[in-house]
Amino acid sequence: MAAAQQRKVLITGGAGFIGVNAARRYLDEGWQVTVWDNLSRIGGKRNIEWLRGIGAFDFAEIDLRREKAVNAAFEAQRFDLVLHCAGQVAVTSSVTDPRDDLENNILGTFNMLEGTRQFCPGAFFIFASTNKVYGGMEEAHIVERDGRYEYENLPDGVSEEQPLDFHSPYGCSKGAADQYVRDYARIYGLKTTCFRQSCIYGYRQFGVEDQGWVAWFLIAHALGRPITIFGDGKQTRDVLFIDDLVDAYFRAWEHRELVAGQIYNIGGGPRNLLSLRQLIALLEADGGKPVQYSFAPPRPGDQKVFVADIRKAERDFGWQPAHFSEDGIRKLNHWIRANLELFR
């Protein structure tokens, strides 16, 4: 019997936190992996070096805003799966430099869609979108329970039926890209899906103050650096451990004929709610020393609460998070403390 053909995956932003964890899993599962990244993010080069110790893969330093470079790279190889994780990822950076944010998130995604359409139209295309496409959700009633903010009347969280309301340049750029990805399924018949991801954390996340708050809190605490809380610290998110997100990518691939053309909220869901103050309490309990922190005014575009309703993903491709927030955070905290040289 002939051996099964090796599957080929392209991961954009593959030197970033989510991309490199996904690349490792695909290597472990025997896929042929190609990584594109412009290496602009902190820790990107270290992540690529680390990934080379896991297995062989192809790497190209590509700026997705450059149409000719993207098309030339697509012409050289065909893929079964395109996992598009690249882009500008911070709300505060988008406010400071909205043009850069637009070009990275909208133009970069458009070039990826066009490259896929022209050179490998049969590929399954997963876009790493964001819950920020729902905006501030001012119409949702928010209450304080047990020292944190929660939705009053959304026990399962925000569903995919929630109207879009881009609130910040980042929300606009990711939201526009999100809709391009969705429409390329409707207009051109590409097998695309959008994962509106919510607060991912995990290994090899070189968090900074304006992005990756769970990792940033853990890294700062481990290094004895002070933490600034923007707002009152009662803001709540449904945090999701990186291994669970990568599991969702795999399950979507397995059910790609059903998933194609769909939108999914992918987060920790109601059982993984965590406020900033609760994270500080977890750190102090796990590390045995107080956290140094102070307060500052809220940042533009910050939601008081976001909790994803993840039931559609469970119905369509059988996915649920396997990690509770306390367990995942302890795993990440211990990994950071065992690898502090990476963060100094």
What would you say about this model in short?
The protein has twelve helices and 16 strands. It is an alpha/beta fold. The protein has a single domain (8-342), classed as Rossmann fold (3-Layer(aba) Sandwich).
Descriptive overview:
- The chain is of the alpha/beta class and 344 residues long.
- The chain has a single domain (8-342), classed as Rossmann fold.
- It has 12 helices and 16 strands.
- Helices cover 41% and strands 19% of the residues.
- The protein has helices spanning 17-28, 44-52, 67-76, 91-96, 98-119, 169-188, 213-223, 242-254, 256-259, 276-287, 311-317, 325-338, and strands at 8-12, 32-37, 58-61, 81-84, 124-130, 142-145, 148-151, 191-197, 200-201, 227-230, 236-238, 240-241, 263-266, 273-275, 293-296, 305-306.
- Helix 5 packs parallel to helix 6 (169-188) and helix 7 crosses helix 12.
- A hairpin with a 2-residue loop joins strand 6 (142-145) and strand 7.
- The termini are far apart.
- The mean pLDDT is 93.
- The strands form 5 sheets. Strands 3-2-1-4-5-8-13 form a 7-stranded parallel beta sheet, with helices on both faces. Strands 14-11-16 form a 3-stranded mixed beta sheet. Strands 6-7 form a two-stranded antiparallel sheet.
